[in-house]
Write a structure and sequence with these properties.
The structure holds two protein chains of two kinds.
Chain A: E1 2-4, H1 26-57, H2 65-96, H3 103-126, H4 149-181, H5 184-187, H6 190-193, H7 203-234, H8 242-276, H9 284-299, H10 313-342, H11 351-373, H12 376-382, H13 386-416, H14 422-449, H15 463-499, E2 500-506, E3 513-519, H16 541-555, H17 560-565, H18 570-593, H19 595-601, H20 605-621, H21 625-632, H22 635-657, H23 661-681
Helix pairs in contact in A: 1-2, 1-13, 1-15, 2-3, 2-4, 2-8, 2-13, 3-4, 4-7, 4-23, 7-8, 7-9, 7-23, 8-10, 8-13, 9-10, 10-11, 11-13, 13-14, 13-15, 14-15, 16-18, 18-22, 18-23, 20-22, 20-23, 22-23
Chain B: H1 7-33, H2 40-69, E1 84-91, E2 94-98, E3 101-103, E4 107-114, E5 119-124, E6 130-136, E7 142-147, E8 152-158, E9 170-176
Parallel strand pairs in B: 1-4, 3-9
Antiparallel strand pairs in B: 1-2, 4-7, 5-6, 5-8, 8-9
Classes of the chains: A mainly alpha, B alpha+beta.
């Protein structure tokens, strides 16, 4: 005779959380764990490299400048990749409970990003590439004997894979959220804001949609410049406009680093309420704030170009406004609302919830440092000093990284149904806070002193700051080691509880009771809601009419007068190619949106996804002089080359129609945008 | 020449330190209060009342600081207007300044460019204060207007990662006494 013990009530969440907490599915836990563990492993490895660099600056150890810049490059790309990876998993975990995201897409993203990280690892450690994560063109092609040509290619392929991986993720998020909530305007909550609907989507869905749109825009810019750089590795005639290229690099690099924290915010909206026992619901202020974030995240990047005086002044001032503006939704909505939930809630302090709460402070303090530096006259005296390093490390270490660990701890605590000891938590958090704020504090002080960032050899008289920074970095490392040591037994308990169940037996001879562990039966999968039919990008006659008009505009790129005029410069020539590509894209959108053709094409979302990524990349890769110059000598072949541009556009347009209404339109827009940005960046 | 804090940087650092400290105290207090029990409706009412003021305060501060900043933009506009033009060229891993010395009080326009990759022209006064910077970009000329009133040797350090010897890419610019 045996009777299974009933599962106890959750020991790790607030008692009031049961009313609104949805039990995670197996797939959500697995995806979350995979991304959290992989991302954190990458981050910890990159953290060791950071410590090595700080010790080098402190002259405690000796590292050649060549190796310093290799490590600097790897540290930058690796850290951003690692934290983005964890936060992608965290938001997926939080979002998947209400939106049917596709695990296949998520694993594709994972594979692409991990392969990209591996490429960057090889390019830097083996190939010696050391142009920094910013790789501002044309620096990658001026190695000064430091790196080989192949390492440039491998590095760019690595960045491309990371960018495409995140692009795939964002497309899936956008496609599924807009399907689930009925179009972009509804998903962003704008109908609710205007009073036309009584309810808005949950906070995490709105945050995820904003992140997806900004992620897609910035990844398109990134893919454009990286493919251009890749083209340069096999054709030395490719030239870049330094200003446009810099805009594209920072739009890509700044945005992906910045989006890590916004991805995290979406997950935090779900996690903190579980410990505060108070649900977090969408309000009109929330919707308006995230609408602002949609704009500010996309435009704030250009504060990196404040000291590029040739950037138009309206763009500089616009960036200043956007950089300050980005603070307002963060300060008024995310941080404020989360502290409001916590206040007087009898907050359930566990390892995860403590890290979540402490992370809020990091965003606030790092944000103040960032806003100060985003004022142009101040930036004039702090630009590219270690002040910049200080503010972004404050919110990357003391917010994003803490939230990354918090997410992993949440998964483990939920499965283990216990947390760690209070004493252990206090010591760990104290070590992290003292080490973290001490480390970033030394950079703030050095930055105010005018110490430049990215120096393998520090200016005379400043190595003491680096030494102090190294000591704090060691304390920080001890803090994270302690954190890992606390998570390990938690993981063991979680694993045991997930795979085994304790049952109580009664000995029929003696009548005594005893407990035994038996394997848990397979979990009954909770079905996902079916995906809503999303339609096609050009659904109405008016939209089809616009598509045809787009074709007519694109057709102009084939007129002999236009083709001749475009020979005036490489930029105009590429712009003409972009026009031909536009014709193909619009034609593909129109054809693929026609009901008869659409039915014949079938759903094929994976094929559509591949087409909207591969065809524009191929279009840009063949736009190098080495490829098109020989063809230009033969009119027929030249005409075929131009037709090929339109054909690649056609494939893109048809592919976009397989991605649904909103996502299809945006994917087509981004593809044409990539062609135009490519033309602008070349000279 | 070692580095020293300039007056603006000390003020910037002090403002940041005060704000960071205030935030740390606020989070500590909220963290302590988190252990108590207050009805959510009460928290909700007070917090939303306060939030409107918080938003207004941030907007006012934003308008003020961004507005003030517009009067002190470092961007040169128009012709040189009688300024002495100093042509600055950056290259891996050197600076070229023509002329490389001017009398004190000269109104200067630094015309900054690069022959290869992006560099950062960071100008440090004779006391080691960072007094301003501008990027040196291939294919572009960035123009920085400054009047250097104090005689002495100014140092230029590269402020944009430009390759292997980035941290040793330095030169000097001399301002002579009248």
């Amino acid at each position: 005779m045996q009777a299974a013990t009933a599962a106890p009530a959750s020991q790790v969440l607030h008692r009031g959380a049961a009313a609104f907490t949805i039990e995670a599915r197996g797939i959500e836990r697995r995806v979350g764990l995979l991304f959290a563990v992989s991302g954190l492993a990458l981050v910890l490895l990159m953290g060791v490299l950071g410590l090595v660099m700080r010790l080098t600056q402190a002259t405690v150890i000796s590292l050649s400048p060549g190796w310093f810049y290799r490590l600097l490059t790897l540290h930058g790309v690796g850290m951003i990749t690692g934290v983005v990876l964890v936060m992608m998993g965290a938001l997926w975990y939080a979002l998947h409970q209400t939106v049917p995201l596709r695990p296949g897409r998520m694993f594709t993203s994972y594979g692409l990003i991990m392969a990209g990280a591996l490429c960057v690892l090889v390019a830097t450690l083996v190939g010696g590439f050391g142009a920094g994560w910013t790789f501002l063109p044309p620096l990658p092609f001026y190695p000064a004997g430091q790196w080989s040509t192949w390492s440039e290619s491998v590095f760019f392929v690595g960045n491309l894979l990371v960018g495409v991986g995140f692009f795939v993720y964002c497309l899936d998020v956008l496609e599924q959220t807009t399907s689930r909530y009925g179009g972009l305007v509804r998903t962003l909550g704008w109908q609710y804001l205007r009073g036309r609907e009584p309810e808005a989507p949950p906070p995490q869905a709105i945050a995820a949609t904003v992140v997806a749109i900004d992620g897609l825009l910035s990844m398109a810019a990134g893919m454009t410049i990286v493919v251009g750089l890749l083209g340069r590795t096999y054709d030395a005639k490719v030239g870049f406009d330094a200003l446009v290229a810099k805009n594209l690099v920072y739009f890509f690099g700044h945005s992906i680093a910045n989006l890590a924290i916004y991805l995290a915010a979406g997950a935090v909206y779900v996690l903190i309420p579980r410990y505060a026992g108070r649900p977090y619901e969408t309000t009109k202020v929330f919707v308006a704030g995230w609408a602002g974030s949609l704009l500010f995240i996309a435009t704030a990047y250009s504060h990196h170009l404040y000291m590029d005086f040739v950037q138009p002044e309206w763009a500089q001032v616009g960036s200043e406004v956007a950089s300050y503006g980005a603070l307002i939704p963060v300060a008024v909505i995310t941080i404020y609302s989360m502290t409001m939930l916590v206040w007087g809630s009898r907050y359930r302090w566990t390892l995860a919830s403590t890290l979540l709460y402490v992370g809020l402070a990091g965003w606030a303090i790092g944000g103040v440092g960032a806003v100060i530096d985003s004022l142009i006259p101040i930036n004039f005296r702090l630009h590219n000093t270690t002040w910049v390093v200080a503010h972004f490390h404050t919110y990357l270490i003391l917010t994003v990284l803490l939230w990354a660990f918090a997410f992993l701890a949440h998964l483990l605590e939920r499965n283990a149904d216990r947390t760690t000891s209070r004493g252990g938590r206090i010591w760990t958090i104290t070590l992290i806070l003292v080490g973290g704020y001490g480390l970033t504090g030394t950079w703030f002080v050095e930055g105010a002193l005018g110490v430049p960032r990215r120096y393998a050899i520090q200016p005379p008289g400043t190595s003491g700051y680096s030494l102090a920074g190294s000591i704090f970095a060691l304390l920080l490392a001890l803090g994270f080691l302690s954190l890992c040591l606390q998570l390990t037994p938690l993981a063991r308990t979680a694993w045991e509880r997930r795979h085994y169940v304790v049952v109580e037996h009664m000995d029929s001879w003696t009548g005594s009771r005893y407990r035994a562990r038996v394997a848990r039966g397979p979990e009954t999968p909770r079905p996902l809601e079916a995906l809503v039919d999303t339609g096609v990008p050009l659904a109405s006659p008016a939209q089809l009419g616009l598509g045809v008009a787009g074709c007519v505009v694109g057709l102009a790129a084939f007129f002999p007068q236009v083709v001749d005029a475009s020979e005036a410069s490489i930029r105009y020539h590429h712009l003409d190619h972009a026009g031909q590509f536009l014709l193909g894209v619009m034609l593909g959108l129109v054809l693929g949106s026609l009901p008869t053709v659409s039915r014949r094409l079938g759903e094929r979302p994976t094929l559509g996804l591949t087409a909207v990524i591969a065809a524009p990349a191929l279009m840009m890769l063949v736009m190098v002089p080495r490829f098109y110059e020989p063809l230009e000598r033969h009119p027929f072949e030249h005409a075929l080359y131009h037709l090929a541009m339109a054909a690649l556009g056609l494939v893109t347009g048809l592919g976009a129609t397989r991605l649904g209404g909103v996502t299809g339109r945006l994917a087509a827009f981004l593809a044409v945008g990539m062609a135009v940005m490519f033309a602008a960046a070349m000279k | 020449m070692s580095l020293h804090y300039g007056d603006p940087q000390i003020a910037i650092g002090a403002v940041f330190a005060v704000l960071a400290l205030l935030l740390a105290v606020a989070f500590f207090v909220i963290g302590v209060q988190a252990g108590t029990e207050v009805g959510f409706q009460r928290v909700h009412d007070v917090a939303y009342w306060l939030r409107k003021r918080w938003l207004a305060l941030l907007v006012v501060i934003g308008v003020f600081v961004v507005g003030i900043s517009l009067f002190d933009l470092p961007y040169a506009s128009g012709g040189a207007g009688g300024r002495t033009i100093v042509k600055v060229t950056g290259g891996q891993f050197f600076w070229s300044l023509v002329p490389d010395q001017v009398p004190a009080g000269t109104r200067i326009r630094f015309d900054v460019t690069s022959i290869d990759v992006n560099h950062g022209f960071g100008l440090y006064d004779p006391h080691g204060h960072l007094i301003g910077s501008v990027q040196a970009m291939p294919g572009y000329h960035n123009k920085l207007d400054l009047t250097l009133g104090e005689a002495g040797v100014y140092r230029i350090r590269c402020l944009e990662l430009c390759g292997l010897n980035h941290s040793t890419m330095q030169d000097t610019f001399t301002v002579t006494a009248h």
